[in-house]
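Example (one chain per record):
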Amino acid sequence: MIPSIKPWAAILAALSMAAIATAAEAAAPCPGNADALGTARILAVDAATTPRVGRKQFPQTLPLAAKEVVLTFDDGPWPATTERILDALRQECVRATFFLIGRNAAARPALAQRELSEGHTVGYHSFSHPMLDRMPIEAAQADVDRGIAAVDGALRGQAEHAAPFFRFPYFSSTPPLLDWLERRRMAVFGADLWASDWNKMSPDQELGLVLGRVEAQQGGIVLFHDTKAQTAAMLPAFLRALKAGGFSIVDVVDAGAHPQAQ
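Predicted structure:
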């Protein structure tokens, strides 16, 4: 018996609707926010070829195109402010890199785990945030190692792990410490510009300051602190301003863990 046209038409219509729904889902990668800033591309960093980056500290930086931005946050995880920052990033489907102080990660492992589980890159920022260049090298190395162990301990049980990325507190590096980290295949991150959010200012003042710097440099590695309430308050507006200004977000990841990333 040959099926009537009507049932087949209904089946084809249903299949077409399913295909349209799937295409729409793929075209809107940020759930609930079709106009999200999003993350434009993933950049894999290998410490063997890129041992240190960030023009505020080093002569070279990441291979970023004009108007590409890498968001980084130091000193967390911290109650309330880190959560607000993660909420803002999730709303815009933006991925960032968090450099964790070991003692803070040990005190708040759930927040460190949330960063990783939501697709962000986690790196290291010492254990106690000292001026490492003012310490005997053995003591500085011990604080770095203790910080690595604390962050790794906080993330224990996660499918993903922290990346071999390190940022010096206060950018207080020394040549022997840089060489030591390079031998350990640890990429050192400086920054290309910062929000100066260690200074007291309103969210609007910080927004104007950091936007002006991003526009002047046409992107780069941006340094924030997720311990600062003013940064948490201004971040949603900053992300929307980046979108309006035609900037795009680059997610930096460990090349060893993401061999397919470009």
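Caption: The two ends are 55 Å apart (CA to CA).
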